[in-house]
Design brief:
The protein is mainly β. 0% of the residues lie in helices and 55% in strands. The chain contains no helices and eleven strands. The strands form two sheets. Strands 2, 4, 5, 6, 9, 10 and 11 form a seven-stranded mixed beta sheet that branches. A four-stranded antiparallel beta sheet has the order 1-3-8-7, with no helix packed on it. A hairpin with a 2-residue loop joins strand 9 (91-99) and strand 10 (102-105). The termini are far apart.
């Protein structure tokens, strides 16, 4: 199982970032894909998740209206889009899937929000 994320991003406040997570080594449509982030000096924060089989999503209340998670089953790729970026969104963003009670993580994507 491998999750490979897109590269680091530098964004201005108010912009939108889209991070990708390409999956391989398992049946993409079966487990949910979660997105979590870790800001400097902070713990992990769950943002939302998608069921790739039917596109169903669930989001953390903190991110409602700003985050959109999608999945492209033809390329086994999940995406997380975060809008209206602010400096507090500077963090490392991870995609995570759980298979047979084991969590598989992407390598992380650094998103820096700065003017």
């Amino acid at each position: 199982v491998q999750l490979v994320q897109s590269g680091a991003e530098l964004k201005n406040p108010g912009a939108t970032v889209k991070v990708s997570c390409k999956a391989s080594g398992y049946t993409f449509i079966k487990p949910f894909i979660n997105w979590v982030r870790q800001a400097p000096g902070q713990g992990l924060e769950w943002m939302g998740r998608i069921d790739p089989e039917d596109g169903g999503t669930k989001y953390a209340q903190n991110f409602q209206g700003r985050v959109t998670v999608t999945a492209d089953t033809s390329t086994s790729t999940a995406y997380m889009e975060l809008s209206s970026l602010r400096s507090e969104d500077t963090a490392v963003y991870y995609c995570v899937t759980i298979i047979s009670d084991f969590a598989y993580w992407g390598q992380g994507t650094q998103v820096t929000v700065s003017s």
